[in-house]
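Ticket reopened. Same input as before:
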Amino acid sequence: MPQNSQEILLMLPHVVIGVGIVISLLIEMYSKKSETILPWISLFVFVFAGVHSIINISANQILFGGMLEVGGKPAIFNFIFNIGAALLILNSIDYIKKYESNHGEYYILIQSAILGMMVMAGSKDIFMIFIGLELMSIAFYVLAGINKKKSSSNEAALKYFLLGAFATGFIVYGIALIYGVSSTTSVDSIIQNFSTFTQNILFIVGLLLFIIGFSFKIAAFPFHMWVPDVYQGSATTVTGLMSTTGKTAAFSVLLIILSASLINYNIDIFAPYFAVIATLSMLYGSIVAIAQKNLKRMLAYSSISHAGYMAIGLAAANSEAFSGIIFYLAAYTFMNIGAFGIISIIEKQNDANTDLTAYAGLASKSPILAAFMSLFMFALAGIPPLAGFFGKYYVFISAIEADLTWLAVVGVFSSVISVYFYLRLVVYMYFKESEKDIDLHIDKYSLLSVVVSGILVIYFGISPDSLLNLILSVVN
Amino acid sequence: MNLELILFLILTLVAAFSSVMVITRKNPILSAVYLILNFFALAGIYLLLNAQFLSVVQVIVYAGAIMILFLFVIMLINTENEASILADKKPIKVFAIFIAVLVFAQIAYLIFYSNPAELSNGTIENLIKAGQIESIGRELYTTYILPFLIAGYLLLVATIGAIILAKKKFE
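Engineering reply: fixed in the latest deploy. New output:
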């Protein structure tokens, strides 16, 4: 338990979200206007938790007798989760009415998912990892199917649930084997005796199963089968949340577990595994995305290839790689949330206007949306000086330092392929005439969210050191 | 022979017999009933090993909750032609055999070739104490209080989710 007011102060982000969930539930029960109140409560909770985490980043402590880490690396992740969720809440205010799922539970579930992610990112015990993962996943399963009348939404929820349960099975089996060998669930004591445990084959098998389970969650190739259908079928704001913060949370756990290979520097048993899934994800995602006409589906495949780029860092597994991955995750979160925000503005009822053709001639109808969409596409393609470029740059540099130059070459090659489909959208927006007349209603809060994401993408691109120094100060 | 050994032999025989019956019955309801018997026999074995809490949980969760789930599934799927469902699905059988062999090999390796991990809190008495409800409750409210609280939120989210997905329409 927190011993003094200092520790309670450091726990505040978790406490505020936990209390926020309960208060939101009460408002949902007793107020007729809950749909209009809850977005603002969620927004306050997320902004408070995000800002609080980043202010207290240097106060790194482990609370609850080795259960939860606050400050330091988890603080950066908490910032990404909460600010990302706050931006998506701004988008949801208008979008969720179009999606015909405007009820308060939507916001309660998003808060629960974020609480689960924060627990995952700060966990120092395998129990905490698992319970946080389940809290996040179960909230996402329901969010994916929140509109019961849509068959695409139902399909997404069912597919996500079945494959998610499959992945959970892998993770639990892995945890059982890890516990069987080490007879402890504390991450710290596992890391301390890592080299002794690795002599036992069952420990390696357990860790491998654990990592395979999380490969589902980061949506890497060959564990990507659910991604396109789930991303296309769910509400656009929910997809934005799953593809960015959900991926970040899964990576945060992989970083916690793989810091073992950073500490015992010579033991890097999983480098071949990550090198293979990185190569396959990058190439598969980039090549298949070319054939996609639906924008949400295209971004789903792009998300697979981005998981590949980040997995390069996991294969390199040195401290540059870890800070590179965290930078990449932050950049990816904000550029993807911006892109999904614009899709959610342009989308109409019944999934209309999510195809590439709907974006033809957007530049003449709404120059500001077209400009921001191009910005996010350039950032996703990794064109300097935007945030996406530096994410890729740091990860590739770490691969070269770890003697994995071939992996960096494959990464560059795959980025070149991906430029084609990102820029195709820009060409559609600026150089094609629109075939049908689309009436555009731009909600001011959604626009605000897009503008904030855009500013963050530009800021992290122009002065990457501001974020990178912060990350380096907590990784080492 | 002391009483403990006799009880152990009876329980293991019942467990082995019932698990064979589960996979050989044609009628899924009968399989389910034998599965309940198997769960009870396992609960008895846990009791012999002084793991009272595990034994109680085995009865409540497996023989209680999970069996209800199985019976619901059997009720919802059409059970009349279940023989024909399995007849032309060779790959499923091969896959099941593969998984069974894998699990068996792993357990055999654990028992015969691998040194059991050094237990952190040593003696047999301590281990017996650790399996009792009193000490589990104390651990749950001291060392594991945070996972316990988060598990509360997990249950809350699961309940909200079930209501959202099952309720006919909102407002």
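Residues 270-476 of chain A form one domain. The longest helix of chain A spans residues 151-182. Please confirm and we'll close it.
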